[in-house]
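Practice problem: predict the structure.
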Amino acid sequence: MLATLGVITILCLLAAVMSKRLSPLVALIALPIIAALLGGFGLQTSAFIITGIKNVAPVVGMFVFAILFFGIMTDAGMLDPIIDRILRTVGTRPTRIVVGTATLALLVHLDGSGAVTFLVTVPAMLPLYTRLGIDKRILACVCAMAAGVNFLPWTGPVLRSSAALHVPVADLFQPLIPVQIVGLIFVFACAWWLGYREEKRLGLGAGSSVDAMPQRVLSEDDIKLRRPRLFWVNLSLTVLVMVVMIAGWSTRW
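Answer:
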């Protein structure tokens, strides 16, 4: 009976959100409460809510911190030299361009947000794909693969698994590191193969000449937020934060 009620609740939640009758926030709060009351739990529903908040609070805290921290670092321009170096390195070779796309997407995915990964990677790399005639579906494919590896402990799947299994994120993630390495190798291998196929199709191998590539342009608002002098400070702080979070030292403290 409870399993059936749970399935019906999920279906109602999806229908309400996809039909835009309810906002996701309202649907995720109201529908489970209604389902619990219909299931006969009564005032015990409040205990369920408190227990759920206690269980997911550390996970939510890590996710919010990752978004805010890496968002601030991106606004401060920490990734700018890296992105510019990638764009200069890829040149006009499709193999390098597609592999560079995967590298850029992985770097931008540091905050664990797939939306940000596409919003930064696609505008930066799309002019190269357009100028050379590379299939734009490859750009979308490689971005999705790079974001889908979820090679950091604060990405969505890891956090959701931690919350569902009631296992600390570090204890869950550390045994997965070899699997993550295999996933990264697969992403770069696929990126190279897709680029090689386009290189053969377009005849843009070594020694080919193409007009100068368009430069990445920042808006005035972006420039105001940049702090290029603090690049090494921000990079060192970011590496330290990643080491602490992956090693799980913060939970031991």
